[in-house]
TrEMBL record:
This is Protein CbrA. Residues 4-157 form the FAD-binding domain. Pfam families: FAD_binding_3. Belongs to the CbrA family. It comes from the Bacteria. InterPro entries: FAD-bd, FAD/NAD-bd_sf, Geranylgeranyl_reductase. GO terms for molecular function: FAD binding. Signal peptide: none annotated.
Length: 370
C-alpha cells in the first residue's frame, strides 16, 4: 500500500489552497478530483472579494474589478453601494482553478483527476483510501456542499442549502459594467437574490432560491432583457447547492477535517464562500504540516479561531427563510437611509454587521459626500 502525508478529496478553491500550502511546507500531498480537471464544469459564480484576490496575487488576465453593487427593488428602482477603496473581482473561474491547480503542482502536490474516492477507513494514525490503496496520515475533505466524505467520516453535513443556477450570456450591451447588479424579487429569487454582471469573457446572470422553491432562471433572463438588451442570448448554464446554515458540527475529528462548502464555511446571508475557502484552506494546509512535521496541535485546533460561526447572519437567514420580505416593503425601503447602510455592510461583509469600524466608515463617508 502506498502512503502519503495528506490526502485532499476535492480540487476546487478550498482543496487546492490547502494542498499547495501543505506541499510548500514539505508534505507529500495528494489531491483527488472526480471531474476531468480542476475547474471543469464549475458551479461557482467566481466572484472574489478584493482582499482574497490580492492575497493570492490573481493574474490580471483572469479577473475584472467591479467597483460597487447596484441593488434593485422589485419595481427596478435601485441604489448604488460602494465602500471606500474596495471592489469585487469577477473571475474566469475555470481558468482560475486551472491556475490554482498548476500552482499546487509546482509546489509539489500530486493531482489525480477523474478519480472518485468512494470508500475510506479511519484508523488511529492514518486514513485508508481503499480504491486508491493509499494510507494518509491526515485527510481533508473539500468535496462540496453535498459532501460524500462527510457522511463516510461521520462528520457534520449541510442541513440548509440554497439552490442556485446561472447562465453565461452574450449581449446585455446596456449593462453598466462597473457594478455587480443585485435583484431582490420574490417572483424570481424567493429567499435570496438574482445577480447580473459583466464577467471576464461573458455576462453572467443567475438566481438562487431558498429551500422548497423552484429556480426560475429562464423567466428571470427574459424579464431582464427588457431592461438591459433584448438581443441577449444564452451561451451555457450551470447550477448547484450553496450552504447557508453555517459551519457544520463537527467539521473535524482526529485526523480528518472538512473545509470549504463541505464544512458549510459560507456566509449564511450573502452565500459568499470563496473567501473563507481559500483563506481557511491555506491555513489548514500550513497547520497540517505543523502537526505532522513538528508535533503541533491537531490542525483543526490550530485554525479553530479563524472559522467564523456567523451567529447574527444565521439568525437573519433563518428569519428571511421563514418570513421573507414583501416586495411592496422592499420597494418602499430601497431609498431609506438606514436600509442603505445595512445593505452596504451586508455586501461589504469583510468587516461584518456588528463592526463599529464598518458603520463608522459608512457614516463618515456619507457625511463627507454631503
Amino acid at each position: 500500500m502506498d502512503r502519503c502525508d495528506l490526502a485532499v478529496v476535492g480540487g476546487s478553491f478550498a482543496g487546492l489552497a490547502c494542498a499547495r500550502q501543505a506541499a510548500l511546507n514539505g508534505l507529500d500531498t495528494r489531491v483527488f478530483e472526480r471531474k476531468i480537471a480542476p475547474g471543469a464544469y464549475t458551479q461557482s459564480t467566481g466572484i472574489f472579494v478584493q482582499e482574497i484576490a490580492d492575497m493570492v496575487a490573481l493574474p490580471a488576465e483572469l479577473m475584472r474589478r467591479i467597483k460597487g453593487v447596484r441593488l434593485y427593488a422589485p419595481n427596478m428602482q435601485y441604489i448604488d453601494l460602494r465602500s471606500p477603496g474596495y471592489s469585487f473581482v469577477a473571475t474566469d473561474t475555470q481558468r482560475v482553478l486551472t491556475w490554482m491547480a498548476d500552482r499546487a503542482v509546482e509546489a509539489g502536490a500530486n493531482i489525480e483527476s477523474s478519480t472518485q474516492v468512494q470508500e475510506v477507513t479511519r484508523r488511529e494514525s492514518e486514513v485508508i483510501l481503499e480504491e486508491q490503496e493509499l494510507a494518509a496520515s491526515y485527510l481533508v475533505a473539500a468535496d462540496g456542499a453535498n459532501s460524500a466524505m462527510a457522511k463516510q467520516l461521520g462528520l457534520g453535513t449541510n442541513q440548509q442549502v440554497l439552490c442556485g443556477a446561472e447562465y453565461e450570456v452574450d449581449g446585455f450591451d446596456e449593462l453598466d459594467a462597473d457594478f455587480l447588479h443585485v435583484f431582490i424579487n420574490s417572483d424570481y429569487a424567493p429567499g435570496y437574490i438574482g445577480w447580473l454582471f459583466k464577467g471576464v469573457k461573458t455576462v453572467q446572470l443567475g438566481v438562487a432560491v431558498k429551500p422548497g422553491k423552484h429556480v426560475k432562471l429562464r423567466p428571470f433572463f427574459e424579464f431582464l432583457k427588457s431592461y438591459f438588451g433584448s438581443d441577449a442570448t444564452m451561451l451555457s448554464g450551470r447550477g448547484g447547492l450553496i450552504p447557508c446554515g453555517g459551519v457544520v458540527s463537527p467539521w473535524a475529528d482526529g485526523n480528518v477535517c472538512l473545509v470549504g462548502d463541505a464544512a458549510g464555511m459560507v456566509s449564511p446571508l450573502t452565500a459568499g464562500g470563496i473567501h473563507p475557502s481559500i483563506e481557511i484552506g491555506e491555513q489548514l494546509g500550513v497547520a497540517v504540516a505543523a502537526h505532522l512535521r513538528h508535533g503541533l496541535a491537531l490542525p483543526q485546533d490550530q485554525i479553530r479561531s479563524m472559522v467564523k460561526r456567523y451567529p447574527v447572519k444565521k439568525r437573519l437567514r433563518s428569519a428571511y427563510n421563514q418570513f421573507g420580505a414583501p416586495d411592496s416593503l422592499v420597494n418602499f425601503m430601497i431609498s431609506n437611509g438606514l436600509f442603505r447602510r445595512v445593505a452596504q455592510i451586508v455586501f461589504f461583509h469583510h468587516r461584518g454587521l456588528l463592526s463599529k469600524d464598518a458603520w463608522r466608515d459608512i457614516l463618515f463617508a456619507e457625511l463627507a459626500a454631503k
